[in-house]
Specification:
The structure holds two protein chains of two kinds. In chain A, helix 5 links the parallel strand 5 and strand 6. Chain A has 16 helices and 27 strands. Helix content of chain A is 30%, strand content 25%. Mean pLDDT of chain A is 90; it is low at 523-551. By secondary structure, chain A is an alpha/beta fold. In chain A, the strands form seven sheets. Chain A has a five-stranded parallel sheet. Helix content of chain B is 52%, strand content 0%. The chains are: A alpha/beta, B mainly alpha. Chain A binds chain B through residues 82, 236-237, 239-244, 262-263, 266, 270-272, 428, 459-460, 489-490, and chain B through 10-11, 13, 15-18, 20-21, 37-38, 40-42, 45-46.
């Protein structure tokens, strides 16, 4: 993957590679900087196959570090700079990170992270200067001086495309995040397809909205590098304000935008858009959650010159299907399909009886091909549940990924997403295992039992509600604070309800269905403005469905 | 963390894209004001002090 950068650096050395606010860097500079990081990493003992953590805000430095890590032959592990240190410490221990590339903006958290992950031996802070750094005994801290003293010429590590390129940690149902291992080939399968399919050119300017620990960022960075295009980092404060997002797209002359739909819904509803806005924009790609059809249609009316694509794929498969959105008729309410398989990837759906689903039948979506992950880091058992033997293989054994997503294929070949088989939900594009939230709550000494359920929401797919039984006077604010030390903010329940007990199924498990029904009753009596029928329909049908709420 | 009037609530990620809409809807209800889309900008919502000044200017 790093060859995409170094090749563009030789072909388009003067072209803009990254724009970060008022700072920018061309391809030659980015490639040289990446080489220096690679050489420094090798100097401190990093070798092919090692995992190097990334713990810094998205910036020119973090982009350079990604390429530096890949160039050294190691795999990068992006740590969410906003996540609780306890969770990051778990990740760092889990995949045995010894070297961390970080930044002064995270300096206040170094101490606690190093306590959580004592095996970390080296911190590299490209934006720090020697004189300003507080050193910790036993930990080597290297700054910009150590980097600039390295040669900036290519250091050729002999890697192959099956080597790990990065590990992305996603929510795990048992309480700890799990590390999805992706090889260079996995990522390139998607990036090569995407750059060709969307015709990314050297004069394009791609937005980079998603955080680096979210796999949407793989398109932004690497499709740009492959094409010699510029990637323009969206400041995190900008995405909070829809009019600022609009101004960003306009002023930065973005030509390809990629984000979760909720950002685009906000832009549509509150971005003050005029018809024909963003003349430079030619494509909008979205992924990660369902784009409500009525807002998608409104956005398309504002931007008739922009082609829109729905991309689908769990982190384990990169992107595996895509759908170009045709003009939507005014009375269409049905959700758009996730489309058909991308190049060099095969998808199919399997019914409960193990038989291949025909068009019109509901089945679980399976993915086969070189975009499918290598497995979960250090977790043979979970890997074996996700990666299963290709059920329709001939003589040659082959592994395929079971997505857990239920789909139905239309007569025209496009797949439609219907829901999940398990307790995994989406909220603002983030993938969340309800079990991970329950594990966090259950760790609180006053919590007797709890159940976390999703409340379907038009804007952000799901809001999260916790039903809790406590043995004392513990308040909601105590639980929120407790969660904040354990799980990322997007997982913290927005609503809490304290109860004396929770409804149980005949097998003694918490009855999430019973709770969902209570929820519908409660909505009816509340001041919530959403139509009840809609809440009801969305609570008990697709989104969070099918028989087995418990794993 | 000290939540002072000039604490950068957006820059620090204390308030995210969902939080801001809860906040605006609270303001509109509580202070009987209308926040227009073009007013939802960092200059008015970057800190608690800025929000207070914004609400006061709307009340006048």
């Amino acid at each position: 993957m790093h060859h995409l950068l170094h090749k563009s650096a030789s072909e388009h050395s003067d072209r803009l590679a990254v724009v970060d606010g008022t700072r920018s860097m061309n391809y030659a500079e980015l490639s040289r900087g990446a080489n220096q990081i690679a050489r420094l990493l090798i100097d401190v003992g990093v070798s092919r196959g090692d995992r190097v953590g990334l713990y810094l805000d998205k910036s020119i430095e973090s982009v350079m570090a990604i390429y530096g890590i890949l160039t050294s032959g190691a795999a990068y592990v992006p740590l969410d700079p906003r996540a609780p240190v306890g969770r990051l410490g778990y990740i760092a221990r889990d995949c045995d990170i010894h070297v961390l590339v970080t930044g002064t903006e995270k300096a206040d958290s170094w101490e606690s992270l190093l306590t959580e992950a004592p095996q970390i031996e080296t911190l590299i802070a490209p934006n720090a200067v020697e004189a300003d750094v507080d050193r910790r005994p036993g930990v080597r801290t290297l700054t910009s001086e150590a980097l600039t003293s390295q040669a900036d010429s290519a250091s050729d590590s002999h890697g192959i495309e099956l080597d790990l390129a990065y590990i992305l940690y996603t929510s795990g149902s048992t309480g700890n995040p799990k590390g999805v291992m992706l090889s260079h080939l996995n990522a390139l399968t998607f990036v090569n397809w995407a750059a060709d399919r969307f015709g990314v050119r050297p004069d394009d300017r791609l937005s980079s909205h998603a955080p680096l620990h979210f796999d949407l960022s793989v398109f932004d960075l690497f499709a740009a590098a492959r094409s010699g295009a510029a990637v323009v980092l969206v400041p995190s404060a900008t995405s909070v304000f829809p009019v600022e997002v609009a101004r960003f797209i306009e002023q930065q002359r973005i030509s390809v935008w990629y984000s979760v739909p909720s950002v685009l819904t906000m832009l549509t509803l509150h971005g003050n858009l005029k018809r024909g806005a963003f003349p430079k924009l030619r494509q909008i790609l979205f992924a990660g959650e369902v784009f409500p059809t009525k807002y998608l249609r409104q956005l398309m009316e504002f931007l008739p010159h922009v082609a829109m694509y729905n991309l689908y794929g769990p982190t384990e498969t990169n992107v595996c299907t895509s759908y170009e959105v045709p003009p939507l008729s005014p009375d269409q309410t049905e959700t758009i399909p996730i489309g058909k398989a991308i190049s060099n990837v095969e998808v199919f759906s399997v019914k409960d009886d193990g038989v291949l689903a025909e068009p019109g039948e509901v089945g679980e979506l399976y993915v086969r091909g070189s975009s499918v992950m290598r497995g979960y880091w250090g977790d043979v058992e979970r890997s074996a549940k996700g990666l299963v033997r290709f059920p329709f293989a001939g003589e040659i054994p082959d592994l395929v990924y079971r997505t857990g997503d239920l789909v139905r294929q239309d007569e025209d070949g496009n797949y439609r997403l219907l829901g999940r088989r398990d307790a995994q939900i989406k909220s603002r594009g983030y993938r969340i295992e309800l079990g991970e939230i329950e594990t966090a709550l259950n760790a609180h000494p006053s919590v007797v039992e709890c159940a976390v359920i999703p409340i379907p929401d038009e804007m952000i797919t799901n809001r999260i509600k916790a039903y809790v039984v406590v043995c004392d006077a513990t308040a909601e604010s105590d639980l929120v604070r407790f969660c904040a030390d354990r799980i990322p903010s997007y997982m913290i329940p927005e609503l809490f309800e304290f109860r004396d007990s929770l409804p149980k199924t005949s097998t003694g498990k918490v009855d999430r269905w019973g709770l969902s029904a209570v929820l519908v009753d409660a909505e009816r009596g509340s001041h919530d403005r959403r139509p009840i029928e809609e809440v009801y329909r969305r609570t008990v049908s697709p989104g969070y469905v099918t028989g087995e709420p418990d794993r | 963390m000290n939540l002072t009037d000039d604490y950068p609530v957006i820059e620090s990620n204390l308030i995210d894209s969902l939080g801001i809409f809860h906040l605006v809807s609270f303001m509109q209800r509580e202070f009987q004001i209308e926040v227009r889309d073009e007013e939802l900008v960092p200059d008015y919502f970057g800190t608690i002090g800025q929000m207070a000044r914004f609400v006061e200017s709307k009340k006048r």
